[in-house]
Amino acid sequence: MMMDEDIEQASLMSFNDRPRAFPSMRSKTYSPLIFRILRKLNVRVLSIILLFCFGAIFYVGASTSPIIVFVFTVCIISFLLSIYLTKWVLAKDEGPPEMVEISDAIRDGAEGFFRTQYSTISKMAILLAFVILCIYLFRNLTPQQEAAGLGRAMSAYITVAAFLLGALCSGVAGYVGMWVSVRANVRVSSAARRSAREALQIAVRAGGFSALVVVGMAVIGIAILYSTFYVWLGVDSPGSMNVTDLPLLLVGYGFGASFVALFAQLGGGIYTKGADVGADLVGKVEQGIPEDDPRNPAVIADLVGDNVGDCAARGADLFESIAAEIISAMILGGTMAKKCKIEDPSGFILFPLVVHSFDLIISSIGILSIKGTRDASVKSPVEDPMAVLQKGYSLTIILAVLTFGASTRWLLYTEQAPSAWFNFALCGLVGIITAYIFVWISKYYTDYKHEPVRTLALASSTGHGTNIIAGVSLGLESTALPVLTISVAIISAYWLGNTSGLVDENGIPTGGLFGTAVATMGMLSTAAYVLTMDMFGPIADNAGGIVEMSQQPESVREITDLLDAVGNTTKATTKGFAIGSAALASFLLFSAYMDEVSAFANVSFKEVDIAIPEVFVGGLLGSMLIFLFSAWACAAVGRTAQEVVNEVRRQFIERPGIMTYKEKPDYSRCVAIVASAALREMIKPGALAIASPIIVGLVFRILGYYTGQPLLGAKVVASMLMFATVCGILMALFLNTAGGAWDNAKKYIETGALGGKGSEAHKAAVTGDTVGDPFKDTAGPSIHVLIKMLATITLVMAPVFL
């Protein structure tokens, strides 16, 4: 082992003289058609086009509201900052040729899979858009839409356009996440040869570029859609639609984003964990070679998986989370403003867009606060990367509290209830505190500095079985504190909103649901920085793989191992954050669904009585959906891993020279196997998620028609959504935390504890890690996307259930 001082400031030792096996998989670099067209345009022509687009956007925004102009301005500035971060990262050196060659192979594999996967998703999206169009052409309209003269055809075209735009933006968000990670990984590897802090800064800024683009796109996409509909439909002019009803036209955007995010998460998760499990079981357990060893035929597939699973999928996931939360909060804000007869409801409707605009500002400050040199006040020989990231997050949290309070005073002040804005500011504070607690709980259960993971590592010393038992029990226990936190947050925010002083014409308080919406906004008010920490993980993981494959000195590998271990913790904490925000967002979407049913049926729909047998059955079906979906997702990873294991074993048997570096593994074969399996396996669970609520709603609608219960279909779907949300939150918490804990228990042993690498405890920990891989990177993340997609699909399909 090297001394601690060497870990922080790596020395440029000479490379190992043994023969190296490097991949040779170069193919033509892929980029989307729109980017290829833009690159061919003359700079002046491109500048004119951009100026025209910006002019049109600001004209439409100015015709809608000054608030929209503010949102557009902040988003465009954040895009300019992201361009600066990109140039800064790409200006860093890529290191020696062997590093570049490995990075190129990873890039080709990731871009090739992305192209094929999103081609498949786009075809399914177009088919679903056609189904939505047909349904909307024959559905009922709300009384408000009929009064505004919005016909069925217009409503159908608007919903389909919003759906396709949401799907497109979600796909672009995923591409951005993947694009930066496959270019930053080698630069982090190269920087690790010089300094741990420089490598950390590059990884953070690369993640920051992706985060700013993803959040900015979610915000500006909804803002453009809202302002376009506002101007086009002549909202608030005599005889036209009321502005409080406009947010209902945006639900297609959220559904499109959810649709793409679900399949991106499923396909990417199956890819990355199928390759990872297969590589670990044969490489580590059977052959006894290190992780990311160039002799392992599945190593490139594993590294490609980090980009398509953890970066591309997570970008689409967070994009969908923000879009769903913004739209649901806008719907609830409009509904509350209508009930309270607020003179200017635009502040309550556009408040979510402003909150996330400030998110872009404060997260940018947090990202830029992480410097490339060590803090002089740190006396320890090794600076903890997690402590550096935590400082940036704490700064972002403080700024979020200040900007959130200013936003509520600016937009939520009304003469009818002068102190209401302060209550809503406290709701936002509840959300911010909830986010911080969620991050801390996830860190406690998944970081090997704390007792739970060390106890799990100790269980590995007595065998594989005790490791699995300890991991399962840790995951089950980890659901308690988050659920208590969510429960307190929902009740506190609802009470604060209800006591805000906003009442309807009958004197009944109406601010409760909007209070929970504001709390959700508070929780997601630092989303860009949280996504930055999440993107940091796979970039650091890839950097470690490149260092290992290019056989850099041990000093460099120890730096990347340190960053990788922290990356595992940040991925786990951000998944916990995502689950918490999904729980609150799903509650909002559920409330928005009930409001929409009331609007279409022209009957009050405020309660779901599970004592009704059919409604109770709907709840059972919702719970079953979560377990069946999880089973199919995990089984898909298992089948993919089996194919990888068989292929890797075959290569080791047929090419014995691989182990002595005399023969080169066929990396491309494993990449092709995993890509094909991932695309094939993602269809079944994805189709289950989309079809289930539609089929259940239609079946019980027909049953209700013949039994004299006109709202039965809507009630059963509401019950299904409610139970699926509750079960999904618990299942996702269990899967994500258990998987993260197993991974870091292995990392802890690899630091030298309990016998270190190659020991019996390490082999048991590797088994636990392989069990946890489909938990934390496939089923777990897919579930929290699933519960939000169920909510958005019920919003879009609500008229079908009546």
UniProtKB/TrEMBL annotation:
Give the main EC class: translocase
Instruction: Tell me the domain of life.
Output: Eukaryota
> Which keywords fit this entry according to its UniProt record?
Ion transport, Magnesium, Membrane, Translocase, Transmembrane, Transmembrane helix, Transport
Q: Which InterPro entries match?
A: PPase-energised_H-pump
Membrane topology, from the record: Multi-pass membrane protein
Q: What subcellular locations does the record give? A: Endomembrane system
User: E.C. number, please?
Assistant: 7.1.3.1
Main subcellular location: membrane
Claim: Membrane is one of the keywords in the record: yes
Q: Which Pfam families match?
A: H_PPase
Residue ranges spanning the membrane: these are 41-61, 67-85, 124-142, 154-181, 202-226, 246-264, 348-372, 392-413, 420-441, 479-496, 508-531, 576-594, 615-638, 686-704, 716-735
Instruction: Give the protein's recorded name.
Output: H(+)-exporting diphosphatase
